[in-house]
Specification:
Length: 452
């Protein structure tokens, strides 16, 4: 059992990638030095939103000889040619590098909407390429010294060619987005809620493909989460003043009851996710997590659930977990607020920032953050102070009747509510792709509803 557990927990072992990070930094420095518009965007992101430009880079599209023997340097630092001179790094979080035979060097910066960027960012700009509402659009912002700043809007599309979607295709995507945004979330029976949502997802995937459907689904998820979290609305407004949206998202976090966890994983796999690493925080913490990734849509999910040491070595993501009377931090959150996939919405969205600057700037506008739960050179993480939600009295009564909370807990939840959601502030360095298992355990313990 111990051997199986270790194998399961170490199936994905992410390491820092400092040489690749240095190469990416050098490429960006060359763009910043050559193009004043890129330098201006970098400065505005830093001072107005607490962001780093490096976290918003979609791709470098550059001549093969633009930076010395770039092809060789890419290979030496862990990048691999995935075809058509498009270089990617599978062991770290880095932009794509596309090598060309031309003379123009393009920096593509990711945004949620090129139209929003055009409306908010006051620099000369032309007309976007790509049909409105399509899966890939670009907008050239400034061309200087054989370099160009381009903002790129992607919706489940990883290619550099524009899509061939018809107006009917675009209208269908718009309809599915509306359906996801307006879906019923509050069900007396969570099984019924999952069945209802499964049908929506199946139809969207059949009509649009998994990548496009996944992108639309998570746009709706972020909107719902944001509607329930003040810190999210404040930071979104700050980023939207530059027209950037939430394109700096790192991962989306769901909390699930044990009974529904396999349903959550099933929904995500229908959207094109695959299971990545798993976590177990130890007997004293009593929780585990499954990380899932959808590379075509660029979405990562962290899915939390109460579990035991014996269960983490098995295929808990697919075989399911039996309900149990005792609730841990995650289970109690779901008992009080509902399933994150349904009525509660995501527990948090984690985005990439300049860690110290973002926390300081948010504090200046009244959004405080908790003590960091990870503070390594390569990974820094902290929650904003939790958003307190009112709790349905029927949920409190049910937990009390089952012996899952005390009378004092019930009194507190009735009068004060319970912590519901957060924005998470994250900074990654050296392309580090993983998470801090000890730190995650600490923050889950510190956000137990019974301690607030």
């Amino acid at each position: 059992m111990r051997s199986n557990t270790i194998d399961a927990l170490t199936a994905f072992t992410w390491e820092r990638q400092p040489t690749a990070a240095r190469l990416v930094a050098q490429l960006l420095e060359k763009f910043v030095a050559a193009n004043p518009s890129i330098a201006l965007l970098e400065e505005r992101l830093r001072h107005e939103t607490g962001n780093r430009l490096e976290d918003w880079i979609d791709s470098f599209v550059v001549p093969a000889n633009w930076f010395g023997s770039l092809r060789e340097r890419l290979a030496e630092t862990g990048f691999a040619d995935s075809g058509e001179n498009i270089w990617t790094h599978n062991e770290g979080i880095f932009p794509v590098v596309k090598l060309t035979d031309g003379e123009m060097a393009n920096l593509l910066v990711k945004v949620e909407s090129v139209d929003d960027f055009a409306a908010h960012y006051p620099v000369p700009k032309g007309n976007p390429l790509g049909e409105p509402g399509s899966a890939y659009r670009t907008l050239e912002v400034a061309q200087v010294n054989d370099t160009s700043l381009i903002v790129a809007e992607r919706h489940g599309w990883r290619d550099f060619n524009l899509t061939t979607e018809s107006q009917e295709d675009i209208a269908t995507a718009r309809e599915h987005l509306a359906t996801f945004c307006e879906r019923v979330r509050d069900f007396a029976d969570a099984e019924a809620g999952y069945a209802y949502t499964r049908a929506l997802i199946e139809t969207a995937v059949a009509d649009l493909g998994a990548n496009r459907a996944c992108d639309l689904f998570f746009a709706a998820e972020r909107e719902y989460w944001q509607s329930r979290n003040h810190a999210a609305r404040v930071q979104y407004e700050r980023q939207q003043k530059l027209g950037m949206g939430w394109a700096n998202h790192d991962h989306h976090t769901y909390r699930s009851s044990r009974a529904c966890f396999h349903h959550l994983v099933e929904m995500l796999e229908r959207l094109g996710f695959h299971c990545r690493e798993r976590f177990y925080a130890g007997v004293e913490a009593g929780w585990g997590a499954q990380v899932l990734e959808q590379p075509g849509a660029g979405i990562v999910v962290f899915a939390d659930v109460d579990m035991s040491a014996e269960e983490v070595a098995g295929d808990f993501a697919h075989l399911g977990l039996a309900p149990r009377a005792e609730l841990g931090t995650v289970g109690l959150w779901c008992q009080l607020h509902g399933e994150a996939f349904l009525s509660a919405g995501m527990h948090h969205l984690e985005c990439q920032f300049d860690f110290d600057r973002a926390r300081k700037q948010l504090a200046e506008v009244g959004v405080e953050s908790m003590a960091p739960f990870t503070d390594f050179p390569h990974l820094r993480q902290a929650f904003t102070t939790g958003e307190r939600w009112q709790v349905n009295p029927a949920r409190i009564d049910a937990a009390l009747a089952a012996g899952q909370i005390t009378e004092n807990d019930a009194k507190q939840f009735r009068s004060e509510g319970a912590i519901g959601s957060h924005l998470e502030i994250l900074e990654r360095n050296d392309g580090y792709k993983g998470f801090n298992q000890t730190g995650v355990s600490d923050i889950i313990a510190r956000t137990d509803p019974r301690k607030w």
